[in-house]
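Retry 2 of 3 after timeout on previous attempt. Resubmitting structure tokens to design endpoint.
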């Protein structure tokens, strides 16, 4: 699989460039790992972040490249520092020592072989945390199979149903078909969802136990499973309903579905006037009602207004270089 970087086919773009000789793929990256932040992150779903936070590594570059990307600084490659496999393994262990609930790999597809090697190295030297693979959903099943046994939780987006919208916003009219195939592979790998108590981490909890105890306000963590995210876009109500219908028909209660309202119009989307607005609260509430009407029980919803640039972390390289002091914190703005 590593040779695929010499004629890169790691993502569905299959651009075929030789990244090992310094050529840049559609993702914008060579074979040199680059990352822009490694820190405890509090803004994932409750069963991922918990109280301590998710040990999140934000990788530079992206093979999908949505025009409205909230993390455009790293997706475009404008932010990021070179990282060796050895240093990446150390970062995972440092995040564990800081109390992270898991290791959260954000947009790692185009570095999958190196990330697998770093995970193997970290596990050999003491990494015990579950690993989360946080992705746009535009993935190749072959690449996902490379990660089998190294990833415990998959956190994919399912962004678009319409070929027209996925072509306009990501240049990927095949997005829905590709993402659905990838999610099927993720569910195959993960099997039954499992949870544990954040405080004791000694119990293996079923979905039913998770629902019951989380309703009482207990902090519980996912240790295995799939959470599919859908970010509601302005004018995207029809896509959103069809995506929910598909996921519930295909997987029922075997996955969690996270319906998000945090779309934030950033300055770089000026050429797309329909995206220069937030989602109206009533539109989001109507989608939630629709989801409940479909029978969604394993779901995450967002309360209040989350469309703020303050929810986008600072991609300032914090946590990437070797720190003299492990207590040093990366502030979330």
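Retry 2 succeeded. Sequence:
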């Amino acid at each position: 699989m590593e040779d695929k970087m010499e004629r890169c086919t790691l993502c569905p773009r299959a651009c075929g460039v030789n990244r090992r000789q310094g050529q840049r793929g559609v993702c914008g990256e060579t074979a040199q790992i680059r990352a822009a932040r490694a820190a405890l992150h509090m803004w994932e779903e409750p069963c991922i972040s918990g109280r301590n936070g998710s040990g999140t590594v934000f990788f530079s570059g992206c093979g999908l490249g949505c025009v409205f990307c909230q993390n455009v600084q790293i997706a475009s490659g404008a932010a990021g520092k070179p990282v060796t496999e050895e240093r990446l393994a150390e970062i995972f262990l440092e995040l564990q020592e800081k109390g992270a609930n898991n290791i959260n790999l954000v947009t790692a597809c185009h570095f999958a072989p190196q990330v697998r090697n770093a995970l193997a190295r970290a596990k050999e030297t003491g990494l015990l945390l579950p690993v989360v693979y946080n992705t746009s959903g535009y993935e190749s099943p072959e690449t996902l199979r490379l990660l089998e046994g190294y990833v415990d939780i998959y956190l994919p987006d399912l962004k678009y149903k319409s070929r027209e919208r996925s072509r306009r916003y990501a240049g990927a009219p095949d997005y829905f078909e590709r993402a659905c195939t990838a999610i099927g592979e993720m569910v195959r790998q993960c099997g039954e969802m499992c949870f544990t108590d954040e405080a004791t981490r000694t119990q293996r909890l079923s979905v039913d136990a998770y629902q019951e105890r989380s309703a009482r306000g207990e902090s519980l963590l996912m240790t295995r499973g799939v959470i599919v995210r859908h970010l509601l876009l302005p004018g995207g109500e029809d896509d959103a309903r069809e995506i929910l219908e598909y996921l519930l028909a295909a997987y029922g209660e075997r996955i969690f579905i996270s319906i998000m309202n945090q779309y934030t119009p950033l300055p770089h989307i000026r050429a797309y006037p329909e995206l220069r607005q937030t989602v109206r609260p009533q539109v989001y509430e109507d989608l939630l009602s629709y989801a409940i009407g479909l029978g969604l029980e394993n779901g995450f919803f967002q309360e209040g207004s989350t469309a703020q640039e303050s929810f986008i972390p600072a991609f300032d390289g914090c946590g990437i270089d070797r720190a003299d002091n492990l207590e040093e914190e990366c502030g979330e703005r």
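Attempt log closed. Residues 80 and 224 are 29 Å apart (CA to CA).
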